[in-house]
Write a structure and sequence with these properties.
The chain has a single domain, classed as 3-Layer(aba) Sandwich (Alkaline Phosphatase, subunit A). It contains 14 helices and 17 strands. By secondary structure, the protein is α/β, with parallel strands linked by helices.
Length: about 500
């Protein structure tokens, strides 16, 4: 491996809908830093999550595998230490690997290949959020407080967390710039915004006129919802308490404000890369774990295969990449092989087992690259009651479940997914082709049996471990400030003048 391999900065937001970003042609959004990032990079217009829920999406992304292949069935599923991740692979390729922020790891391993982790996680690492197909409304589900408490705030738990993520990421970049480690770095910075609660600081709220906030395009009445969407409404306690029109506008306004907050943090990270001289040799990847429904089709949050929840932003940026928009169907499992190719393993020779994804680097850098890979996605968590599966190829999306009606949408002619074409003879060929892909990819009966058994085990363990003294798996980071403090074994003048970055004597 050569020493001039690029550094890698991956920035992951949480619950960031692609259609709420300026670079994705939203006229309302105020996202100048993301838009500038996109001006020096590849914008993937048809990128998707492989599981529209936080933990399974992230585990799948890190492993380059579908969640069902690694037992990542819901937000309370353990991420096994024996599964290779892109952090393991990059570390094996002599990259420094550092995680700052949310990753929602469940289990005793809270690193999964990262050499260093600088923050604790925002969510618990135990089985507390185990899915249960027999439960209508989990105790940890969202509810109407989302809308009764939406609006402006000075501080909340998410702001406290993400401010710390931003600070520690910027400090890490400074440390990398003045460090003696000659290895390139992969820094993974993961924010929890713009995930609900739908609250933002005044300065971010004020970037938008309230009357300019766009409202949902499709307002599906409950009597017209598909059975799974109705179960989501029941799960979130919205079936009997749907938000009012003004509550919808306030929630969406605050969400836009939270997107602008993330945009500010991205701008600060890029600023530090530039002032430390690292920017020109750093590939920046911006993405999320899943989208946000924001009231479209009457739904909120995630766990849906409608575009707002499963289509995601994905931007790969570098000063030497010409801006281009890419319409190929890609997904988060493609990130692992992409990072390997960026790191110099173009033949993917370091892989110890096949992965579900394919490298996106040639798509990002060569407009003549061909691509013919469908997107596969899963929803196996509470509310689905059986595997809910999706395949998208081109403009056709197919959704399969053994308990709910099949759905087939033509996104070119029906971008808001209002007409199910499953019974339309004109789509018979598409239906046959995509339903065949489902049968080839999944053994649905076996998968359902495995998920139900996993739920029973973990629900029992959750109950057993709640008795007596509680032992959690939450990560406690080392205080990195210690390395910058004077201790008894150092001389003041030596300590005070070491580690200075960018010093110059002022010109007269």
């Amino acid at each position: 491996m050569t020493n001039n391999r690029p550094n890698i900065l991956v920035i992951q937001a949480d619950q960031l809908a692609a259609n709420t970003i300026g670079a994705y042609q939203n006229p309302v959004a105020s996202t100048p830093n993301i838009d500038e990032l996109a001006s020096n990079g590849a914008i993937f217009d048809s990128a998707y999550t492989n599981f529209p829920l936080c933990a399974p999406s992230r585990f799948s992304m890190m492993a380059g595998q579908l969640a069902s292949s690694i037992g990542a069935y819901d937000n309370g599923a353990e991420f096994s230490s024996s599964i290779p991740t892109f952090a393991h692979y990059l570390r094996n390729l002599d990259y420094q690997t550092c995680l700052v922020g949310k990753m929602h790891f469940v289990g005793a391993d809270q690193l999964h290949g990262f050499e260093q982790r600088l923050t604790t996680d925002i969510y618990p690492g135990d089985f507390g959020w185990t899915g249960d197909w027999t439960e209508v409304r989990p105790s940890f589900a969202n509810d109407v407080v989302t809308f009764t408490n939406a609006g402006i705030c000075l501080r909340n738990v998410q702001l406290e967390y993400d401010d710390e993520v931003s600070h520690r990421s910027r400090r890490k970049i400074y440390d990398l710039a003045r460090g003696n480690d000659e290895r390139p770095f992969m820094l993974f910075t993961s924010f929890t915004h713009p995930h609900d609660p739908f609250q933002c600081r005044p300065e971010h709220w004020d970037r938008y006129r309230h009357d300019d906030i766009d409202m949902p395009v499709v307002n599906t009445a409950q009597q017209d919802m598909d059975p799974y969407s109705l179960r989501l409404m029941e799960q979130y306690a919205l079936k009997d308490h749907p938000p009012s029109e003004e509550q919808v506008r306030v929630a969406r306004h605050a969400y836009y404000g939270s997107v602008s907050y993330i945009d500010d943090q991205i701008g600060e990270l890029i600023k530090v890369l530039k002032e430390t001289g690292l920017y020109d040799n750093t590939v920046i990847v911006l993405t999320t774990d899943h989208g946000e429904m924001l009231g479209e089709h009457g739904l909120w949050y995630k766990k849906s295969f409608f575009e707002e929840a499963c289509r995601i932003p994905l931007i790969i940026s570098h000063p030497q990449i010409a801006q281009r928009r890419i319409g190929a169907d890609v997904s988060l499992v493609d990130l692992l092989p992409t990072l390997l190719e960026i790191a110099g393993d173009t033949a993917q020779s370091s892989l110890v087992e096949p992965v579900a994804g394919h490298s996106l680097w040639s798509l990002a850098t060569d407009s003549s690259t061909s691509w013919d890979h469908p997107v596969y996605a899963e929803n196996l968590a509470e509310g689905s009651t059986t595997p809910l599966l999706m395949v998208k190829r081109g403009q056709i999306k197919y959704i399969y479940s053994t308990v709910d009606p099949e759905q087939l949408f033509d996104l070119e002619n029906d971008p808001h997914e209002q007409t199910n074409q499953i019974s339309n003879p004109g789509y018979a060929d598409s239906y046959r082709a995509l339903s065949t892909l489902v049968k080839q990819r999944w053994d649905v009966e076996t998968l359902a049996r495995d998920i139900f058994a996993s739920q029973r085990r973990r629900l029992f363990l959750r109950e057993a471990m709640s008795r007596g003294k509680l032992q959690d798996w939450d990560f406690t980071p080392v205080d990195e400030l210690e390395q910058h403090c004077l201790r008894a074994d150092k001389v003041y003048s030596q300590w005070a003048y070491q580690g200075i970055l960018g010093y110059r004597f002022p010109e007269e």
